[in-house]
Design brief:
It is a single chain. Helices cover 52% and strands 15% of the residues. By secondary structure, the protein is α/β, with parallel strands linked by helices. Strand 2 and strand 3 (76-81) form a beta hairpin. The chain is rod-shaped. The N and C termini lie far apart (67 Å). The relative contact order is 0.09.
Length: 375
């Protein structure tokens, strides 16, 4: 499952600017605004809005030598203005651009990143060349009730994995809040695709939920691709189906309906096969007992005569077909459980039931036929 827009609402907004040591808040706000000029995402627009509304920064009338648009592959945007090389984006991408090892970054900078990440927010770093200016706090909300729904998926035997471009600390915080089984952090589109292929090569069926253009390759590769209605056109076209409610836990209904169809078909088949056993015990002795008297031993139901045995089997068969029509239309009720538990329950009810019911039913009809003297 993709995180932003799928597990969370996806409307991440810039909430605060946290400066690095020796950096003025106005300098950070201006750098963040300029570095977001090439970022057309809602997050990029929110950074410009925060710098404008809270810090009074306006876009300066300057000549931009190079505009770096935001891309899911690079996870960074920015611009070059004179001798200023401003960049804003994922912390690891900005540190790589600045040529700074994470352990060599200022302690205050690392603490700010950690503080944002531990609250479930997304930290974005801002740099001017090899100088770190600070951190932008992007805030998002996990969709309510999603943890309980993921627990239902777990009861069905489905493992949930959150895939996000966020750093591991943020990913861990969101994963814990959402209740997923595992997470993949700092993932690019190709990482999502590779992860799905590895799972498929291991013999697993994989469903993917996403809403972004960067999710499209993974949605197309998955065995079942579910795009959010609020997602991009590319995501909706790559997916097998579109969830109009934009809820990733719609997989519960998808899996539930699929399993209900399989269970209903399996139950009817099992019952039909088991149901035929009693008919053989009624019809075979009736047809061949004159030629092979030994077959009389198969008349375990003690049917009154060969004619009565055949008539009783035919009447029971007609009645049982009518009785099974409502079951076929309504379907077997599905309750979240493992495949082994469902198999045992259906074999007990429809296998053993299909074996015992015809013996009792045919015998009762035989008694009624004899009482009414129909043969």
């Amino acid at each position: 499952l993709d995180k932003t827009g799928t597990i969370t609402y996806g409307n991440r907004m810039a909430a605060d600017f946290l400066t690095a040591p020796g950096v003025d808040p106005t300098e950070l706000a201006e750098a963040a605004l300029l570095a977001s000029l090439g970022d057309e995402t809602p997050e990029g627009r929110s950074i410009i809005a925060l710098a404008t509304s809270s810090y009074g920064i306006t876009t300066p009338d300057v000549t931009v030598d190079l505009l770096v648009p935001f891309a899911a592959e690079t996870r960074i945007s920015g611009c070059d203005i004179g001798n200023r090389r401003l960049r804003k984006g994922a912390v690891d991408s900005v540190l790589r651009f600045a040529g700074i090892n994470e352990t060599n970054a200022p302690a205050e900078f690392r603490q700010a990143v950690d503080k944002v990440a531990r609250t479930g927010g997304t930290p974005l770093a801002v740099a001017n060349g090899n100088r770190l200016l600070g951190v932008i706090h992007l805030k998002d909300m996990v969709k309510p009730g999603i943890k309980e729904r993921f627990a239902e998926l777990r009861a069905m035997g489905i493992r949930t994995v959150m895939v996000t471009g966020d750093n591991p600390v943020t990913a861990a915080a969101i994963a814990s809040e959402a209740g997923v089984d595992d997470y993949l952090a700092e993932a690019k589109p190709e990482d999502k695709l590779a992860y799905i292929r590895r799972q498929q090569q291991g013999g697993r069926l994989v469903a993917m939920c996403g809403d972004g253009t960067n999710d499209a390759p993974a949605l197309a590769q998955a065995d079942v691709g579910v795009a959010m209605q609020t997602g991009t056109q590319a995501a909706r076209e790559a997916a097998n189906m579109v969830d109009l409610d934009s809820s990733p836990t719609k997989l519960i209904e998808i899996v539930g309906i699929g399993k209900q169809l399989l269970m209903t078909r399996g139950a009817l088949t099992t019952f039909s096969i088991a149901n035929d056993v009693a008919k053989y015990f009624a019809i075979i002795p009736a047809l061949f007992v004159v030629t092979y008297p030994q077959l009389g031993a198969l008349n375990v139901m003690g049917l009154s005569s060969p004619r009565s045995a055949i008539l009783s089997a035919v009447i029971f068969n007609a009645l049982i077909i009518i009785a099974l029509i409502p079951l076929a239309l309504k379907g077997i009720e599905y309750r979240p459980a493992s495949a082994a538990v469902l198999l045992r329950r259906n074999l007990l009810i429809y296998g053993l039931g299909g074996l015992v019911l015809p013996f009792a039913g045919i015998k009762i009809i035989d008694v009624v036929v004899g009482f009414l003297n129909l043969v």
